[in-house]
Amino acid sequence: MVKNWLRRIFWREGSISARFRNCNIAILALSFLLMVMVMLGAFYNVIKQVSADYAGRYASSSAEALSAHISREIALMAKTALSGPVIDWMTNEDDEEKKRAAFEEMAGIIRGLHSYNLYVGLEKSRRGYKVEKENTADSMLPIYMLDESNPIYDWYFKCIASDEDYMLNVGIDNLLERKRMWINYRVVHNGVMLGVVCTGLEFSHVMGELFFQFGKRYNGNVMRGLIIDENGIIHMDSDKFDNEDFLHRELRINIENEITDQIFLTAIKSHLDNIEGYFASRSPPTVVKLEPGPYRYMTISPIRMTNWSAVILYDSSTSLNISLFLPVLAVTLILLIAFALATNAITYQLIFSPLEQLVSSLPSLKDNKNARIYGIERNDEFGNLSNTILDLFTKANYDALTGIYNRRFMENSLQSIMELLSRTGGMLSVLMIDVDYFKKYNDAYGHEQGDTCLKFVARALSVSVTRANDFVARYGGEEFIAVLPHTDEAGARAIAQKVLENVRKLNMPHADSAIAQYVTVSVGVTTGVVTHAQSWESYQKRADEALYASKQNGRNKYTYLEMRNA
Known about the structure:
Layout lengths: L1 H9 L5 H27 L9 H30 L2 H8 L4 H15 L6 E6 L4 E6 L9 E4 L8 H8 L4 E8 L4 E12 L2 E11 L4 H4 L1 H5 L6 E6 L4 E5 L6 H5 L4 E2 H4 L3 H12 L12 E4 L7 E7 L4 E7 L11 H36 L2 H4 L13 H17 L9 H18 L2 E9 L2 H8 L1 H18 L6 E6 L2 E7 L3 H18 L14 E9 L6 H17 L5 E5 L4
């Protein structure tokens, strides 16, 4: 009876997720009971102590999280500084057309920034602009003049005078009345200083996230987190997370005035004295034991891409002596291994084995849209997944009207083909094909017959391309494209001629054609040796130029143009 009950609970046909859940709950419950029994026996040996390794990792991870955020913002500012439209406008500030192009470029970049705007200072006119993504190019007007005698613009002139690509500073956004960390990036073109672009990270939204744990879990004298710059000025303090003056006003608080522990001050001074520019790579945190007091340990972790550091102070009475947990850890490890093995066996049978079969059957879809993949007959989650994949693959890669590949498949496949060919210097041929006077055909015979015409043309093109790696795709409207890897000029010309002949053989009447009484096509052909510097667009455009030549020279023919070197 028990055996039958267990079989109904765990092995009855139905939802895989339910069977997996039931098995895991049972195994986890047994493991948990054993773990609790062991921990209760060893719990009296637990002594609260600080784990320097834990706080060190916390400081390091906090610093790296901020580094990643700053790196992303710096990359976007670099993109702005190197943008052609931005450089063109900064070179000729009063050109309205260049101004609009620069605004569109900067508005697109702002969408990726943490901030909603960026500021631009131009060296030639000493004008300052504010760019907001919600505004228009017409609203991008000078809002201030960069006066070298006014301290409020020190950020600009220090950045101009710097040898670094960018500089960081902390200041108040006077327009928004917010304290920010500013990323100021120099714009230099052909050795000429054009100006500075900058954006700001708001402390309350960005840096506050790093020490959120301190405000909710580590309040009181347990732990304290700070961010300081190369001069020891505190820019973030978990004890002041709710202090509006600290977050939104430019207060200069030196760490030496906040903490008086001599060992702490000596370690901080040594760290600050050794800072030379921005930290280029991730460094391990420094752990220092302090004098007896509210905090017994501190860690200092450099923040990469800046000359700032994360400082964590913590009390030793709140952690646990890891050595006392060794017996518990040993037993726990054994239990977890047993749990992992049992769960792995069940998971493999229920999920991974069917998934492997499904994955191994997917490549067949690339060569045959009618291929049957594993699981489509099942009535569980894998059945739904398999049928959904098949449906999505068909919709994503095949043209709904003609049944041949669509443009999306062509772009992805052609890019992959070019990457492979570029490694060996292989040849690639591309054909652009257009139905002659198709608009007149639609006007004369109707759109329904026009769709039928495209279907027959697509079929004729498909039979013209027979090699396994060659394919034809609908590029758009009445345009098609044929991709022929490892095909030289002679082979491409032969295929182009075959395309013309197979379409002519359709003998589909076209009374309004200026060149024949039946449907014809024009073809553009190009061939080249693929290099790393080329893109699939370059081959398409060259083939399109050849197609245009065919149309100009009477249609119903092909024109070959050799691929230009990149």
